[in-house]
C-alpha cells in the first residue's frame, strides 16, 4: 500500500501508471476475496488514496472490473486459440483446450458471471460499447480457430460453443466456490453437499458434450 503522501499524477505517463496500479489492486483483491466482495473503497485503500482519487480514473466500481474483464478476454484468447489449433481436429482435445485455459483463469471466470448482472449495468453506454467491441474481436479469433480445427462446425456453431463455455465457466465457478457460510452448510449437511462440483473436470465435460452435440447435429443435417 502507498503512503498517505501519495501525490496526484500530473503527466500522461504518471496518470497511466496510477491507473495501472488501481487495476492491479482490484485484480489482487478480487483474486483473494472474489469480485462481489471488493468495493471502490477497498481499491482506494489498497493504493493509498481516497475513494475520490479512484473516481478520477474510473467512473464506477463496475468500470474497473469491466476493464479487467476486457483484458481477460484478450489474455484468454492468447492462450486458448493456439491450444485449439494444436488439438489437431480432435473434439476432446479442443474441449480440453477451451476448458483448460478457462480453468487456469479463475478471476476471468468470476468476472464472466458479473458482466451481465452488474458490470454492464453500472457503466456508461460508451463503456459497454468499447467492452463489447473488444470482446467480439476476441470471439472472432475463437471462431476462426474452432472452424479451422473442426471444419464441420459453422461460424454460428463456434459462437454457440463460446457462449456455452462462458456460461458453464461463470456458473460452475460460482457453484464450486460458495461463500464461507454456504460451505459450512455443505460441510455439516452431507445431504446438501452434492451441490458442490469440481470446477475444472465439470467444465471440461460440459464443453466436450457441447462440441459433440454440435458435431452430431451437423452430421445429421
Question: How would you portray this structure in words?
Answer:
This protein has helices spanning 12-33, 40-47, 51-55, 61-85, 91-103, 106-119, 125-149, 155-176, 180-188, 199-219. With 221 residues, the protein is mostly helical. The protein has ten helices and no strands. It folds into two domains: 1-58, Arc Repressor Mutant, subunit A (Orthogonal Bundle), CATH 1.10.10; 61-219, Tetracycline Repressor, domain 2 (Orthogonal Bundle). Helix content is 74%, strand content 0%. The chain is globular and about 60 Å long. It holds the Pfam family TetR_N. InterPro entries: Homeodomain-like_sf, HTH-type_TetR-like_transc_reg, HTH_TetR, TetR_C_34.
Quick structural overview:
This protein has helices spanning 12-33, 40-47, 51-55, 61-85, 91-103, 106-119, 125-149, 155-176, 180-188, 199-219. The chain has 221 residues and is mainly alpha-helical.
Question: What labels describe this entry?
Answer:
Homeodomain-like_sf; globular; single chain; 2 domains; 221 residues; Arc Repressor Mutant, subunit A; mainly alpha; TetR family transcriptional regulator; Tetracycline Repressor, domain 2
Shape: globular
Derived from helix and strand composition plus strand pairing, the structural class reads: mainly alpha
Q: Sketch the major β-sheet.
A: none
What is the mean predicted local confidence, pLDDT?
A: 92
Helix amount, in percent? over 70%
CATH architecture of the largest domain: Orthogonal Bundle
Count the E strands: 0
Number of structural units classed as domains: 2
CATH superfamily of the largest domain: Tetracycline Repressor, domain 2
How would you spell out the order of helices and strands?
A: HHHHHHHHHH
Low-pLDDT windows of residues: 1-6
Indicate the CATH class of the largest domain.
Mainly Alpha
Q: Cα distance, first to last residue?
A: 59 Å
Task: Assign the CATH topology of the largest domain.
Answer: Tetracycline Repressor, domain 2
Number of helices: 10
Q: Nearest-angstrom radius of gyration?
A: 20 Å
Which strand-content bin applies to the residues?
under 5%
Amino acid at each position: 500500500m502507498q503512503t498517505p503522501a501519495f501525490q496526484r499524477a500530473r503527466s500522461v505517463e504518471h496518470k497511466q501508471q496510477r491507473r495501472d496500479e488501481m487495476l492491479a489492486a482490484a485484480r489482487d483483491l478480487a483474486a483473494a476475496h472474489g469480485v462481489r466482495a471488493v468495493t471502490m473503497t477497498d481499491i482506494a485503500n489498497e493504493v493509498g488514496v481516497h475513494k475520490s482519487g479512484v473516481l478520477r480514473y474510473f467512473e464506477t466500481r463496475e468500470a474497473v472490473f469491466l476493464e479487467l474483464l476486457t483484458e481477460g478476454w484478450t489474455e484468454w484468447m492468447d492462450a486458448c486459440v493456439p491450444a485449439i489449433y494444436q488439438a489437431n481436429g480432435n473434439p476432446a482435445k479442443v474441449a480440453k483446450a477451451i476448458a483448460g485455459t478457462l480453468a487456469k483463469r479463475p478471476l476471468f471466470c468470476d468476472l464472466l458471471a458479473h458482466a451481465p448482472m452488474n458490470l454492464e449495468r453500472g457503466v456508461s453506454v460508451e463503456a459497454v460499447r468499447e467492452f463489447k467491441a473488444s470482446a467480439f474481436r476476441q470471439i472472432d479469433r475463437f471462431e476462426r480457430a474452432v472452424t479451422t480445427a473442426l471444419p464441420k462446425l459453422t461460424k454460428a456453431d463456434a459462437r454457440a460453443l463460446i457462449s456455452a463455455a462462458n456460461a458453464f465457466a461463470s456458473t460452475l465457478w460460482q457453484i464450486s466456490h460458495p461463500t464461507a457460510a454456504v460451505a459450512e452448510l455443505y460441510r455439516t449437511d452431507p445431504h446438501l453437499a452434492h451441490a458442490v462440483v469440481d470446477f475444472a473436470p465439470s467444465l471440461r465435460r460440459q464443453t466436450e458434450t457441447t462440441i459433440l452435440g454440435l458435431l452430431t447435429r451437423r452430421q445429421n443435417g
